Amino acid sequence: MDSKRTGYIFTLLAIAIFALQDGISKHLGGLYPPVFITMIRFWAFGAFAVLMASRSNGGLRAAAATKRPVLQIARGMLLAVQIIVIINSFTMVGLAHSQAIFAAAPLFVALLSVPLLGEKVGWRRWSAILFGLCGVIIILGPGADGIDPILIVPLAGAVLFAFYVIATRFVSRDDSAATSFFYTGVAGAVVLSFTAPFYWTAFAPVDWVWMALLCATGISSHYFLIRAYDLLDAAAVQPLTYLQLVLGALIGATVFDEQLTLNMLIGSVMVVGAGIFTIWRESVVARRKAGMPDKP
């Protein structure tokens, strides 16, 4: 099997496991504090990050060596907070509705990259961003009384994730991907360990099984995604991640009996289309800056 085909298999496996992970998070989030669930999940993630670092070239010392320690720690904190917010969103808003709004995260990344990273965005990407944001408004479905305040939760999750991606791009100028991955898991686990124990709740025996499965899906999904990026360009992987929206909607509708409204469907198509176009244009611009020919 060639490396490109293997890369796509890893990508699809990661996406499917991420969707399953979201469904388990919604189930547990309705029974236990999301901070508590996230802490245990990050303990497993942090242990995995340490294991991966110890097996890499240079070991733990090389992985922990960073030129931007404050920002690396902040990244881990951002992701931990974002996961807490999104688990709350799954329980308060619903899995399908949350995923539809969260799909706008790449648009917020493109929007924030201008003031925070100094990147230039041409008229094509600006048009795509505006089109996608119109899709977000359709998903939010403002009525006579305005937007339902509860929908601010998944919107905040998308914005937080965009800041996390921006911070990741910033540190990538000086640190390796292995270093960023190490700090994502370890920093998040350490920070949550100081706060989440106050939310410690006794698990029912069967829910320890669900928690173990959540940790396993979190570790395996990240591993498969790392392997996918080893074999494929980001421009090939990122558009496929929108399949998580489809799988999330299916799980929400079939397992949790959520309703898929026309606004959600229309808005999601607009957001996904705009996101894929934005990712493609970023790839084209990056290749031109590197002096590489455009792909057909």
Question: What's the short version?
Answer:
The chain contains 13 helices and no strands.
Span between termini: 24 Å
Order of SSEs: HHHHHHHHHHHHH
Strand content: under 5%
- Provide a count of the helices: 13
What share of the residues lie within helices?
A: over 70%
Count of extended strands: 0
Instruction: Report the radius of gyration as a whole number of Å.
Output: 19 Å
Question: Biggest sheet: strands, sense, closure?
Answer: none
Shape: globular
Domain tally: 1
Structural class per helix/strand content?
mainly alpha
Low-confidence stretches: none
Summed over residues and divided by their number, the pLDDT gives a mean of 88
Q: Mind explaining what this structure looks like?
A:
The mean pLDDT is 88. Helix 1 runs parallel beside helix 12 (243-254) and helix 2 packs antiparallel against helix 9. The two termini are 24 Å apart. The chain has helices at 3-29, 34-55, 59-64, 69-92, 95-102, 105-117, 123-140, 152-171, 177-195, 205-231, 234-237, 243-254, 262-289. It has one domain. The chain is globular, with a radius of gyration of 19 Å. The protein has 296 residues and is mainly alpha-helical.
What key phrases describe this protein's structure?
296 residues, mainly alpha, 13 helices, 77% helix
Give me the secondary-structure topology:
Blueprint: H1 3-29, H2 34-55, H3 59-64, H4 69-92, H5 95-102, H6 105-117, H7 123-140, H8 152-171, H9 177-195, H10 205-231, H11 234-237, H12 243-254, H13 262-289
